[in-house]
Amino acid sequence: ASPSGRSSWDIHSVAEEMMAKGEEVIVLTVGDSDFASPKAAVDAVTDSLARGRTYYTAPAGDDPLRATIARQQSRLIGREIAPEQVIVTVGAQNALLIASLCLLDPGDEVIVPEPLYSTYPGTLGLAGARMVTVASPAAQDFHPQVDAIAAAITPRTRAIFLATPNNPTGAVYRQDELRRIGDICKQHDLWLVSDEVYAGIVYEGHHFSAGSLADIADRTVTIGSLSKSHAMAGWRLGWMVAPLALARQAERVSTWVTFGIPTFIQDAAVVALETQPDGMPELKEAYARRRQLFCDRLMNVPGVVPHWPEGGMFVMLDVSGSGLPAYEFAMGLVREKRVATVPSDDFGASAQGYLRVNLGAADALIEEAAARIADYAFALHE
Ligand code: PMP
């Protein structure tokens, strides 16, 4: 929350209060999906439980799952990853924390392109690190500004954390951008932590993993999860891939923080990744269709400008032309039109003036939400 006690999640709370009173609200806040998790994974849980797979596994993950993730990652980056380099975690969020605890000492600085995923400040803060943000302006389609990143380095800089495809912006970082960021890491002896949870959801171009940069493999951590690509957010299954020495350290930390992941969830994760290594194509198609529906509908509406995402599951809607700050716009929108979104306050200073809209809802709801936003924007304009 800000000093005023305001938080962008106030809008979500208002939506929940309205729904508790029986009102219908279109909730496009949290990055969850309307898609069901793959049936093969659901069946695998039942099967695993029936086989009594309820005991501890190694804290770093069960061997078959680590091997499966290593295989998938090797294929993605065109370079051999050993299963020992993979640490299975409680979602990518837990991998972000474990990486932070392993890599950062109190007072270390971490550079993060902004707009940024809203848990980064808290996660880095738990490790005692200081976050230094570098704007990725909308005018550059929210792509990282590599020269500005280089200029932000100080003797205390220890790492660069980034997310590609990006939450909230949907920017899919290009190979040349990651190449240049990798060069900076090499030059200044920094870690690169690349959060790639949306790797399976790219519409324009293709996902380039930081793990593909072989010459910085000794300083790169890639983070992934089943939450987005396989509509399995509630299963809490993620991973980190790290150089061997760091993976060993992460294994010890994971022993202290979680002591492993539910065994039957890991069994199901093997099935999910083996049957659909690139995620669910129907989910990606649906999000692409909804992106089009949403952006087309709001294209010529006064005061709002949709930003076309290249990947991920969100659309950023610029509401700065409406005359209202994003928080007030979002609060009015939920109260008057019953559409809940996330105002950009949480995503950093350069993200002011945007709403983040989740595409993980049925087409009809996305269309209806866009129509209500248009009504609201027209009313403000008059
Ligand atoms: N990183 C980013 C960029 C995310 O958007 C999310 C989820 N919203 C996470 C990490 C955490 O994902 P998980 O559900 O795997 O913990």
Write structural notes for this entry.
The chain is an alpha/beta fold. It folds into two domains: about 10-35 and about 280-380, Aspartate Aminotransferase, domain 1 (Alpha-Beta Complex); about 40-275, 3-Layer(aba) Sandwich (Aspartate Aminotransferase, domain 2). It contains twelve helices and 13 strands. The chain has a seven-stranded mixed sheet with strand order 2-8-7-6-5-3-4, with helices on both faces. Helix 4 crosses helix 8 (about 245-255) and helix 10 (about 280-300) runs parallel beside helix 12 (about 365-380). The longest helix has 19 residues, at about 365-380. The radius of gyration is 21 Å and the shape is globular. The structure holds 4'-deoxy-4'-aminopyridoxal-5'-phosphate. 4'-deoxy-4'-aminopyridoxal-5'-phosphate binds next to helix 4. Keywords: Aminotransferase, Transferase. It comes from Taklimakanibacter albus. This is Aminotransferase class I/II-fold pyridoxal phosphate-dependent enzyme.
Structural topology:
Blueprint: H1 10-20, E1 26-27, H2 39-50, H3 63-77, E2 86-89, H4 91-103, E3 109-114, H5 120-126, E4 130-135, H6 146-151, E5 157-163, H7 175-188, E6 191-195, E7 220-225, E8 238-241, H8 244-257, H9 263-275, H10 281-298, E9 305-307, E10 314-318, H11 326-337, E11 339-340, E12 342-343, E13 354-358, H12 363-381
Parallel strand pairs: 1-11, 3-4, 3-5, 5-6, 6-7
Antiparallel strand pairs: 2-8, 7-8, 9-10, 10-13, 12-13
Helix pairs in contact: 1-11, 2-9, 3-9, 4-5, 4-8, 10-12, 11-12
Bound molecules: 4'-deoxy-4'-aminopyridoxal-5'-phosphate (PMP).
4'-deoxy-4'-aminopyridoxal-5'-phosphate binds near residues 31 and 117.
